[in-house]
Amino acid sequence: MTNFFDGIEPIRYDPSAETDLAYRHYNPDEIVMGKRMEDQLRFAVAYWHSFAWEGGDPFGGRTFDRPWYPQDSMEMARAKADVAFEMFALLGQPFFCFHDADVRPEGASFAESQRNLEEIVDYFGEKMEATGTKLLWGTANMFTHRRFMAGAATNPDPDVFAWSAATVKNCIDATKKLGGQNYVLWGGREGYETLLNTDLVRERQQAGRFLQMVVDYKHKIGFDGAILIEPKPQEPSKHQYDYDVNTVYSFLKEFGLEGEVKMNIEQGHAILAGHSFEHELAMAAAFGILGSIDMNRNDYQSGWDTDQFPNSVPEVALAYYEILKAGGFTTGGTNFDAKLRRQSLDPVDLIAGHVGAMDVCARGLKAAAAMLEDGGLEKARGERYAGWDAPKNRDMLENGTLESITERVLSEGIDPEPRSGRQERLENYINRFV
């Protein structure tokens, strides 16, 4: 045990509690649509924002003062792990997620970094066995170090491509060894700053071949988890190749990977792409590639990815509506890719941020389940498109030609009148549940 969270008791479900360190809505054993709430939500803590982030922003450096800083030795890596797994136990959430650079110090060589990762993975294994916490997914940080300033898989330097491929191999190995249920590829700098020095065709081919190698290696080693891509439209690169779900799906189709790779979708990234979170989830579900989510939000007055804990039940409810409608999570879950504000210095803030977010998600999940069970939205959608169920209209769509449809319009005297989309009434309907 460490003394980092001294005085904080394990968080329990207590709807009448007069403290912010209790769950009022998240009851792991409550049954929601035939599953325990814990099994529907599958919460995970993000190791990077919770323990590796130092509180800096584009205009200022570190504000946090953690006992495992500076994060430059295996001794500090183990100290960080001790605190992390203590927090997992306090929260009682079932999963966590990590990048390689979050959990081990950078070595003087690739081989040393690999040894550091292998050592901390063994330490994690002991901690996981002791606490029961599992790994939702692992990934590689291929965006922070200066070697990745022009990308990883899409880098113009083949040596960086090679370094990146070897890094991903090590991280998949680590994920498999820890029983991870997914492996995520997040191309933090897989994009470009200017077309003046960029070969788009070459970089796209490199990215596609890289992903094919990842999938091949997954099958070679018998990794049973899902391979996920996390779309992001911009920041830090001006133009990201993995802009949104539609863009990524076209990429997967081009390289024959649509049956092999699914999506890890983040709310904040959806917003940066000009979409709603539920739009991206619905698109992924329509393509059959919905895998997992990062649950956070952006500051709507800022034009960048602020990674704040969720606090809007209506937003969260619409997201879980799409997830439940698609059948719920399988290997995926709800990862809090969220961080404290840089003025939130106390250890208790880290606990409180997760407790509040888990409660918001629990309320949203229950609202989403209630809407699905009531069926009002699906009934309204069905009524709006009911005309297409008529045999002659199905035949028009499947077998019609412009000539035959024109003949029908003339012979039947078709002159359609617009019908209300009833948006305000549907918004009122949603408000009954949230």
TrEMBL record:
Location within or outside the cell: Cytoplasm
Needed co-factor(s): Mg(2+)
Hydrolase among keywords: no
EC number: 5.3.1.5
Residues that, per the record, bind Mg(2+) 2: E266, H269, D305, D307
Source superkingdom: Bacteria
Cytoplasm is among the record's keywords: yes
Gene Ontology molecular function: any one: xylose isomerase activity
An annotated GO BP: D-xylose metabolic process
Cofactor note: Binds 2 magnesium ions per subunit.
Keywords: Carbohydrate metabolism, Cytoplasm, Isomerase, Magnesium, Metal-binding, Xylose metabolism
InterPro entries hit by this protein: Xyl_isomerase-like_sf, Xylose_isom_bac, Xylose_isomerase
Any Gene Ontology CC annotation: cytoplasm
Family that this chain belongs to: Belongs to the xylose isomerase family.
Name assigned to this protein: Xylose isomerase
Name of the coding gene: xylA
